[in-house]
Amino acid sequence: MKVVIMAGGKGTRITSVTKKFAAQYPELYNEAPDIPKPLLPIDGIPVLEREIYSLREQGFNKIIITVGYLSSIIMDYFGDGTCVSRATGKPFGVSISYFNEEIPLGNAGALYKIYDDLKDGADEDFLLLTADSVFDVNIRRFVEYHKMKGGWATLFTHPNSHPFDSSVVVADMDCRVIEWLAKEDKRPVYFKNRVNAGLHILNRKVLDIAVKNGTIVPELIGTSNLQGSVVKVDLDRQLLKPLCGDKNSGAIFCYDSPEYVKDMGTPERFEQVLCDFKVGMIKRKNLQYKQRAFFLDRDGTINKYKGLIRSVDQIELIDGVAEAVKKINASGSLCIIITNQPVVARGEVSDKLLGEIHDKLETELGRAGAYIDALYYCPHHPDRGFTGEISSLKINCNCRKPKIGLVVKAAKDYNIDLTSSWFIGDSRNDVLCGKNAGTKTVLLIGSDTDSNQHDGNKENGQFGQDLTCNSLIEAVEQIL
User: Fold this and answer.
1) Which of 66, 83, 150, 209 has the fewest CB atoms inside 10 Å of its own CB, making it the most exposed?
2) Could you tell me the pTM of the whole model?
3) Is the pLDDT reported for residue 158 higher than 90?
4) What's the 3-state SS for the chain?
5) Active site residue 299
6) Is residue 183 very low, low, confident or very high in pLDDT (cuts 50, 70, 90)?
7) What confidence tens digit (pLDDT) does each residue in 264-292 have?
8) Which three-class secondary structure string do you get for 389-430?
């Protein structure tokens, strides 16, 4: 599979930083007074160079770089990919070709200009990355997912700390993208924190469809229209967004991953990237490495305990929870909710309504700059006799806590080391689930927790937990 890296942007918001590093590392950039954003160094090695090393190590060695602003500096630095790095003194070890946008064509216009070069043998798929982001991800895993789904496009998606100023992707339970909410689009009151991270796998059919539909005329890209503006192509709005919800073709899927992808487009974000690199977070979050997770119960741990939750209005975050989740996020650990939801089997809450309840939970966390990496729920309930119950869900399953089916699935999905992870909840079942799975455990006994948490041992509430705390924030602070 060929790789296209878009590296043509001006990076006007970060020019103060690019000029500073150009002066600091004159030997890297042949004493240029300014450098393009993709050449900003992290620990002395340019961001784009780190991307290329990551690609090469995972077997992707045919790279096309689209350049524009200060293009000669990028082309001089990397050459055809066979030369030696000025930063490391080692060969890049890849094959690089370039498309130079002398006139800016938008973030996808160049794809039509290099259309014939995107195919690699019989493979019509190609990997499309931006040089504006710092990432360290298991790309082979991403590609395998794309091939398994068989769609025309797969978006790398993740939660982030600022979903309200990011493009949000809405998908069904099969991860098929049904709606694309750009920053300017009106959004529902509550939504899942699922953000397009700027890494894509596309089939050339995506480009063909826009031409067939008359949205794009390749011959006009780069020319002036009747208003005197240059005809450009926007990847999100013109190519991908129109394909959302196409159930017949299954055109677009999202690939949810907690791996490190961060836009470094402002001085503040670049500083955060440098800090994350210094503590090893960028590399550590790659799913080829074992992850540490905080498994959290839902009711009485994150939201106030109100018995069985049957409506969106009943979700109310416990004080301090958002701050606790932010601390988990900042530590580089995964934050995963594991919850029993028998209301589904009892016919009292549909999967759709439960999704809306969880959307509110994620939205409220997002307002505070916090996010969860995943949520797993058990819809089953073994006891029969409820009006409107769903008989197929009235079973003894392996995922209802204290059984460990959901924890095992999460561990497989995200390569989690259970022995270094924690399970935090407010009931006996939470503690036993963690212990059965091999994690360390915390029992919460604060005022917002399940009033029945000590059933079976009401005298002291001891179920063999490693810690007993009053709240999630207290537990997280003790652990970290």
Assistant:
1) 150
2) 0.92
3) yes
4) CEEEEEECCCCHHHHHHHHHHHHHCCCCCCCCCCCCHHHCEECCEEHHHHHHHHHHHCCCCEEEEEECCCHHHHHHHHCCCCCECCCCCCECCCEEEEEECCCCCCCCHHHHHCHHHCCECCECEEEEEECCEEEECCHHHHHHHHHHHCCCEEEEEECCCCHHHCCEEEECCCCEEEEEECCCCCCCCCCCCCEEEEEEEEECHHHHHHHHCCCCCHHHCCCECCCCCECCCCHHHHHHHHHCCCCCCCCEEEEECCCEEEECCCHHHHHHHHHHHHCCHHHHCCCCCCECEEEECCECCCECCCCCCCCHHHCCECCCHHHHHHHHHHHCCEEEEEEECCCCCCCCCCHHHHHHHHHHHHHHHHHCCCCCCEEEEECCCCCCCCCCCCHHHCCCCCCCCCCCHHHHHHHHHHCECHHHCEEEECCHHHHHHHHHHCCEEEEECCCCCCCCCCCCCCCCCCCCCCEEECCHHHHHHHHC
5) yes
6) confident
7) 888 998 999 999 999 999 999 999 999 99
8) CCHHHCCCCCCCCCCCHHHHHHHHHHCECHHHCEEEECCHHH
CB 261 within 8 A of CB 132: no
- For tokens 């931006």, name the residue: 130
- Of the pLDDT bands very low, low, confident and very high (cuts 50, 70, 90), residue 246 is low
Residue 427's CB is within 10 A of a number of other CB atoms, namely 26
Specify the pLDDT at position 391.
Answer: 94
Backbone φ and ψ of 55, nearest 5°: -65, -45
Per the residue annotation, which of 132, 256, 299, 430 is the catalytic one? 299
Q: What are phi and psi of 180, to 5 degrees?
A: -125, 115
116 is a catalytic site residue: no
- Please tell me which residue in 125, 263, 276, 297 is annotated as part of the active site: 297
What would the mean pLDDT of 237-252 be, rounded to a whole number?
80
Report pLDDT for 385: 86
pLDDT (0 to 100) of residue 450: 66
The answer to whether the beta carbons of residues 276 and 261 sit under 8 Å apart is: no
